[in-house]
Design brief:
The chain is an alpha/beta fold and about 230 residues long. It has a single domain, classed as 3-Layer(aba) Sandwich (Rossmann fold), CATH 3.40.50. About 35% of the residues lie in helices and about 20% in strands. It contains seven helices and nine strands, in the order E-H-E-E-E-H-E-H-H-E-H-E-E-H-H-E. The strands form two sheets. A seven-stranded mixed beta sheet has the order 5-2-1-6-7-9-8, with helices on both faces. A hairpin with a 2-residue loop joins strand 3 and strand 4. Helix 3 packs across helix 5. The longest helix is centred in the first third of the chain and has 15 residues. The relative contact order is 0.18.
Length: about 230
C-alpha cells in the first residue's frame, strides 16, 4: 500500500527529545517531503548522568530546537521538562499524561492527526512505558467533540528494543531509502546523546537497523512499526 502524505498530519509522541528521530526520523522526513504536516509532542528532559554520557536540560532543549527546524516540523512541545519528571514519569498519574496527549498544546485535539506514532510499550525505560500506556489510552476508539478516532496508530521501534520481555513484532514498514541520510543528520544534531562504538544510539547502529528492516521488505533501508489500527 502506497500512502499519499499530501495534506496528512502526523503526530509523534516521544518520551524524550531524540526518541522521535530514533523511531520516526524517516517517516517524519517522508511526510514532510510528501506535502504533509508533522507535529511532535515530547514529554520531559532533565539533568542526570547517563551510561556513556550526561543529560543537560538546557543543552538538550537547544538541540531539540535545532532538530525541529532541520526537519521542518510544523509544531512541537516539550510538555513536562524538569528534574522532577525526567525518568520519573511512572510516578505521574496516568490521567495527567493522558490529558496532555488529548488536550495539551500539541495534542490529539489541537492537531487532529491522521497518523499517530507512539513509543513501544515493551521498553525497559520507565518513561517510555508510562508514555506508551498513556498514548494507547488516549488513542482509544472513542469519538467526541474534541478529538476524532485517528485512522492510523503505530508504535515505533527504538535501538534498545531488543532487550525486553515483550518482543517488538513489526507489521508495518516505511521505505526510508531516500530519507536515511536526513534521519542520521537529525540524530547527529542531538550531539549530547550520540554515543560511540557499539552503543545502540549511534549513527552506525541506526543505519544497521534500517538496513535489516529494509531486507525484510526488499528495499535498502526501512523503519519498522507495530500497527495497532488502520482505517481505510
Amino acid at each position: 500500500m502506497t500512502i499519499n502524505y499530501k495534506n496528512k498530519k502526523l503526530l509523534v509522541i516521544a518520551p524524550h527529545p531524540d526518541d522521535e528521530v530514533l523511531g520516526c526520523g524517516g517517516l517524519i522526513s517522508k511526510v514532510k517531503a510528501g506535502g504533509g504536516e508533522v507535529h511532535v509532542l515530547c514529554f520531559t528532559v532533565g539533568n542526570i548522568k547517563q551510561y556513556g554520557g550526561t543529560s543537560n536540560s538546557e543543552k538538550r532543549i537547544l538541540e531539540m530546537n535545532k532538530v525541529m527546524r532541520y526537519l521542518k516540523v510544523d509544531s512541537f512541545d516539550l510538555a513536562w521538562a524538569g528534574d522532577e519528571y525526567h525518568l520519573k514519569l511512572d510516578k505521574v498519574p496516568q490521567k495527567n499524561l493522558i490529558n496532555t496527549i488529548e488536550k495539551g498544546e500539541v495534542s490529539l485535539s489541537t492537531v487532529k492527526p491522521d497518523i499517530v506514532a507512539i513509543p513501544f510499550i515493551g521498553s525497559t525505560n520507565q518513561d517510555h512505558v508510562a508514555v506508551a500506556k498513556a498514548s494507547f489510552t488516549a488513542c482509544r476508539p472513542v469519538r467526541n467533540n474534541e478529538k476524532d478516532i485517528t485512522n492510523m496508530v503505530l508504535s515505533y521501534e527504538q535501538p534498545e528494543t531488543n532487550w525486553t520481555r515483550k518482543r517488538f513484532h513489526p507489521n508495518f514498514y516505511v521505505d526510508i531509502s531516500k530519507e536515511l541520510k536526513k534521519k542520521i543528520k537529525a540524530l547527529s544534531l542531538y550531539s549530547s546523546q550520540v554515543r560511540s562504538k557499539n552503543h545502540p544510539r549511534t549513527p552506525r547502529v541506526i543505519e544497521n537497523i534500517a538496513e535489516l528492516r529494509g531486507t525484510e521488505i526488499g528495499v535498502k533501508y526501512a523503519e519498522a512499526y507495530e500497527c495497532h489500527r488502520l482505517i481505510i
